[in-house]
Amino acid sequence: MENISFDYKIDLATIAAESQMDFESFDIHNLKGFFNGKIYVFFHEKNKRNFIVLETGIVDYLLQFDDLILSIGKGIYKTFTISCDYYSNNLLYEYSSNNNTLIINEGNANSYMISCNYDDFKKGYLKFRKRVLRELSILYPGLSSSQAFLEYFG
Question: Is the pTM of this model over 0.70?
Fold first, then answer.
């Protein structure tokens, strides 16, 4: 079993209402306002399992987690931001290359903190990302014609 895994949930009523949308003309900021649901991050430790629930737009968090992984890959080990985006749940992170530890905080209300092994987080997230993007494309057929979606996730 992996040390960190992800899952998500979007209500069926939300899917039914949004799946009829014409996403073709939406930019990435418009897309962040859709696909609202919950992302579950599970931490599997030796004799216990902890989790946190992230409630917001699924695409919003995918973009933030993608940016986190890209930034760490470029050697940017700490969030550089002037202020948080109060219209979404802004992530703040800090990575320690000495012990491969990643710490993530919610930047607006400081409502959660994730502290974990970065490699485990990255492996679990990339597996989740692949699955959720495939499923969103099936649940929301209009995404296949969205230039913004294809640009960021295609």
Answer: yes
**Residue 122 domain boundaries:** 4-153
Determine the distance from the C-alpha atom of residue 82 to the mean position of all C-alpha atoms in its chain, rounded to a whole number: 21
| Amino acid occupying residue 52 | I
What are the pLDDT digits (tens) for 85-124?
A: 545 567 889 999 999 999 998 777 777 888 899 999 999 9
Q: How far apart are CA 62 and CA 58, in angstroms?
A: 6
The token pair at 152 is 């960021």
Structure-token match 């692949």, residue found: 130
Q: What is the DSSP string of the chain?
A: --SEEEEEE--HHHHHHHTTS-GGG--HHHHTTSSEEEEEEEEE-SS-EEEEEEEEEHHHHHHHHHHHHHHHHTT--B---SS--TTS--EEEEEETTTTEEEEEETTT---EEEEEHHHHHHHHHHHHHHHHHHHHHH-GGGGG-HHHHHHH-
Give the total number of structural domains in the chain.
1
Q: How far apart are CA 83 and CA 33, in angstroms?
A: 20
